[in-house]
Amino acid sequence: MLFHTLLIASAAILTLGATARSSKGEDPKCPEGTYPGFESNVWQFNAPAAEFINKTGSFLHSEWYIGPLNATHGKDNTIGSTRTAAIGTSTFTEELVGYYRSPTLSVLRFLLANGTLPLDGFTLATYTEEMRVMSICGGTATYFSMTAAYCTDKVVNAYDFYNKFHSDTVGTVAQELNALVFTGTCPAAGIYLPQFCLASTSGFQSTDEARDVAYIMEDPKCPQGLYPGFESNVWQFTVPAKAFINRTGSFLHGEWYTGPINSTHGKDNVVGATRTTIADGAVFVDRLMGSSHSATQSVIRFSLANGPVRWQNYVWGSYTEELRAISICGGEATHFTMTATYCVNDVVGGPLFRMWRMS
Question: Which of 26, 91, 204, 214 has the most beta carbons within 10 angstroms of its beta carbon?
């Protein structure tokens, strides 16, 4: 099995709603007799994302994941389309509620559409899953995540089911592509770095939002002398997400992250706004590239607007970062992620830079 060679980081992730106007599956309130659960697997593969997207990027041609399909309805990769399949003696129908596609990113988000699903030893009252395939490391590697939020009568059984199911299905695809997992940042000049924390996901806007947000610097091609890097941190806190959103959900008032802000331009949390900070004589201008806010989630995505910038011994050609706070466990807890892709002259500087910004 391929997984004898894999180091798999698992983190609980709940993702954005299908559109800015819909809260389908966003941290659902579970019916009486069931309990909220969440599970996620993430991998970094040493194969281009285009190969994984070609294998996994279709909702209605998804036999690699759920086996033979009994029926489909609607147009492929269109919100509202459905697919029906069977597991054991149970038949289930899933509806596509979120979709985004670009040359460097594929996201499919779907939920159980036909009510309770009895399985071996437990029952799923509802679930929402998201599959995300993202190009990293200048097109040479793939970041792949599978997540699920659900209501069930037995949370341990459901967690074990999803953990094995995700690993087995994605593992089979990786085997077909001869792809292996690596940990840490991108391989550059023969260097592999250990991860500072568990991996998490990168930015995704809903289908409607994607029409309005320019996905600039999705896995940028680095200029000569600079190397691609990728780094992420994830936490789960026993505090309602509302508290984190109130504290961290502003781009122009982001001193908690950047330190003192010297100047701002534009309207807060509106794409195109900028903020300027100075560190050790280096001037950093961040531009807001994406923003999404609701009662249960906050996402801020920004990029370096004035690169290249020299900070200490590092030259930053570019970076894109995302901060995400998401409500989980029926509103009782928070899933918080911080991710970055960047081009730098020394890949060790990526994690060090992030650690400095969070200090």
Answer: 204
